[in-house]
Specification:
This protein is an alpha/beta fold. It folds into two domains: 121 residues, Rossmann fold (3-Layer(aba) Sandwich); 257 residues, P-loop containing nucleotide triphosphate hydrolases (Rossmann fold, 3-Layer(aba) Sandwich). It is 42% helix and 17% strand. It has 16 helices and 13 strands. The strands form two sheets. An eight-stranded mixed beta sheet has the order 8-9-7-10-6-11-12-13, with helices on both faces. It has a five-stranded parallel beta sheet with strand order 2-1-3-4-5, sandwiched between helices. Helix 5 crosses helix 15 and helix 9 runs parallel beside helix 10. The longest helix is centred in the N-terminal third of the chain and has 24 residues. The protein is elongated, with a radius of gyration of 27 Å.
Length: 390
């Protein structure tokens, strides 16, 4: 529905009333009468006349309401019995115009409608959108997927009802489904091939829900969808996800192409995963230089994470920060046995070793992305409530 123009559909039998409404409605700024041939689901407001057959006409009223929660219905009728007014109120009618209709009453109702809709739109625009956390590896095999998976599950299992999504953007070779033991025939390739259908309902039908509470969007296992994906399609998918989720974590691996650069550009946080080795740190330095040349993301939004850290490394933390000319954000301890056990069993670190240092480390890392003192309010959407019962 347009944010600028409100489309009004008339279901009026009395021709005199119809003509009066056809004169009143367009006289108010941003209101337009919808053509009868147009899709009825695309209108913003219905004005429905109630006549002699109350049961039939209220069935029509209920079917209109089923089109969408953003649509409103006004009723008009020559009948003024108290029972009719009560039934209209209970059914959810926003306004009722007795006949003969009064021009000023209709105008006042339409202006109130416009004010309501504008307030809702402004509220949605001010609403905090979900944060995109982009996890990039400085080198293959550095543990990018381990960081993405366990940060996502730690966020999902934090206090409150945060909705967390995890996207595998490793073309063809994504491993998130293996790390979480998820079998799904659907991936972001399915969305890319059907981008015109993209809305919250379609999106949630593609995602796989893990036992940790994380919603996973896997990568294609073949070329399905890869050949049609574009930076614009990825941006549209992520924009839709921001309307549903509090956090969207993306594992892009080590690729730097037009798709991954688009993700970098729209991400709130970019996590560069490295180890204390010269090849890794050299690549981190190159990536930081590349981002600076591109002009995005802002340097303060880039965080360097050292994975598999142990204090006896040949390269010290002080030397590391000197090499990359940036402060290290986080250290993930080296725990080969627990990590490999989790990967091989398709489980999270918190489920394999809940009391281990590395498991606690990811919980503490998740807390870094939660505002201190923030009261986490349950914001389960209708879709989420529906899916929780599947």
């Amino acid at each position: 529905m347009s944010q600028n123009t409100f489309f009004v559909r008339l279901e009026i039998k009395d021709q005199k009333v119809r003509k009066e409404l056809e004169q009143i409605i367009p006289s108010i700024e941003r209101f337009q009468i919808q053509e009868y041939s147009a899709d009825p689901k695309s209108c913003d407001l219905w004005i429905l006349e109630i006549g002699d057959d109350l049961n039939k006409e209220f069935q029509v009223f209920n079917s209109i309401q089923a089109f969408g929660t953003g649509m409103e219905v006004f009723l008009t009728s020559p009948r003024l019995e108290p029972d009719l007014l009560i039934q209209a109120l209970r059914a959810g009618a926003k306004e009722f115009f007795p006949q003969p209709i009064k021009k000023e009453e209709v105008k006042a109702a339409l202006l109130k409608f416009k004010e309501r809709k504008d307030n809702i739109r402004l509220s949605l625009e001010k609403k905090k959108r979900g944060k995109i956390i982009n996890v990039i590896g400085s080198k293959g095999g550095i543990g990018t997927t381990t960081v993405a998976v366990n940060l996502a599950t730690s966020l999902a299992q934090s206090e409150g009802s945060l909705l967390v999504a995890l996207i595998d953007m490793n073309f063809l070779f994504g491993e998130i489904s293996i790390f979480l033991d998820i079998e799904s025939s659907l991936s972001w390739g399915e969305i890319a091939r059907n981008i015109s259908r993209l809305d919250s309902t379609f999106l949630m039908s593609i995602l796989s829900k893990h036992s940790s509470g994380v919603y996973v969007l896997t990568s294609p296992t073949g070329l399905d969808g890869v050949n049609v994906v574009t930076p614009e399609i990825i941006e549209k998918i992520l924009s839709e996800m921001q309307e549903v989720f509090d956090f969207i974590l993306i594992d892009v691996g080590q690729s730097i192409d037009e798709i991954s650069l688009k993700i970098v550009k729209i991400s709130d946080i970019v996590l560069l995963v490295a180890a204390l080795s010269l090849p890794c740190l050299t690549n981190v330095k190159r990536l930081l230089w590349t981002f600076k040349k591109l002009g995005y993301p802002p340097i303060e939004n880039i965080r360097v994470i050292i994975n598999r850290y142990h204090k006896n490394s040949e390269i010290s933390l002080k030397e590391t920060e000197k090499i990359i000319n940036k402060q290290i954000f986080w250290l993930v301890p080296n725990d080969y046995l627990t990590t490999m056990s989790a990967i091989n069993r398709g489980k999270t670190l918190s489920s394999v070793g809940p009391g281990t240092e590395i498991s606690k480390n990811f919980i503490a890392l998740a807390d870094k992305f939660l505002e201190k003192g923030e009261k986490k309010i349950e914001r389960l959407s209708i879709i989420e409530k529906f899916l929780s019962g599947r």
